[in-house]
């Protein structure tokens, strides 16, 4: 289910005070990192990730791997930090506006 613009704004507001849960190293987005991110999304639903250094295309490739591997939606990206959201269907923790 795609998010509406108002839901995206709401999630960006919630993510502002979050600290990065996952920090990517030199190897970037590996299968182990995707698995760890999936577990973090199950617990928190909204996760901030700090990407490893690299050019803009390399960071976008990392985001694509992370979002695609976890079926998460990219909420926001500024520089080396990206915010991802995936709804926990069993026990939702964040009440989204309509």
Overview of the structural elements:
This protein has 98 residues and is of the alpha+beta class. It has one domain: 2-Layer Sandwich (Translation Initiation Factor IF3). The chain is built from 3 helices and 4 strands. A 4-stranded mixed sheet has the order 1-2-4-3, with helices on both faces. Helix 2 links the parallel strand 1 and strand 2 (46-50). Helix 2 crosses helix 3. The mean pLDDT is 92.
Outline:
Helix content is 41%, strand content 18%.
Overall CATH class: Alpha Beta
Low-confidence stretches: none
CATH architectural designation: 2-Layer Sandwich
| Shape descriptor | globular
Helix-strand layout with pairing:
Layout (H helix, E strand, L loop, with lengths): L4 H11 L6 E2 L7 H14 L1 E5 L5 H15 L2 E6 L2 E5 L13
Helix pairs in contact: 2-3
Question: What descriptors fit this protein?
Answer:
98 residues; alpha+beta; Translation Initiation Factor IF3; four-stranded mixed beta sheet; globular
